[in-house]
Structures are given as structure tokens and as C-alpha cells.
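Task card 7
Instruction: Convert sequence to C-alpha cells.
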Amino acid sequence: MAETQTTEARGHRKVRQGTVVSNKMDKSIVVRVLRTYKHPIYQKVMKRTKNYMAHDEQNACKEGDVVRIMECRPLSRSKRWRVVEVISRKEA
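Output:
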């Protein structure tokens, strides 16, 4: 039901795409998001990663899956994101 609502109805929320690195918790996953940016002085393209804890209601995500997560209200002490869709599954 929550996935049927569009971002227009819920307002502007941040969306990130990343890889699932852990699914050992119940209804929770850890998503690693990679971002690239140019160094302000040296102009070199640099990579930074950040881990986000996300809510996975159906426990559908496995390690290695690429998922899209969206910002939401605080669900626990560390969870502020929820899974919107699984973009691709990891090949066995």
C-alpha cells in the first residue's frame, strides 16, 4: 500500500540508489550508496560511500541486490529510509 503512493502525493523526498550489503536483521537492510564528486581544488573525481539502514517490509532484498530507497519518517533509532523497489537481483 505504501509503495502505491507516488512521490507527488507524498511531497519531495530524497531518493538514493545503492547495493544491499546486509540483510541479517528482520525487516531491515543496510544499503551502500556510492557518490562521486569533483575535488574542489584538484578537480579529481573522487568516490565516497555511505551506508543507510532501510526498512524492507517483505524481507525481499538479498545481499548484492541493487535497490532504490526513499526518505521517510523515523522508523527506529537508525532507520530513516524505506525500500521503494528492487532494481536488479544478484545473479547466483
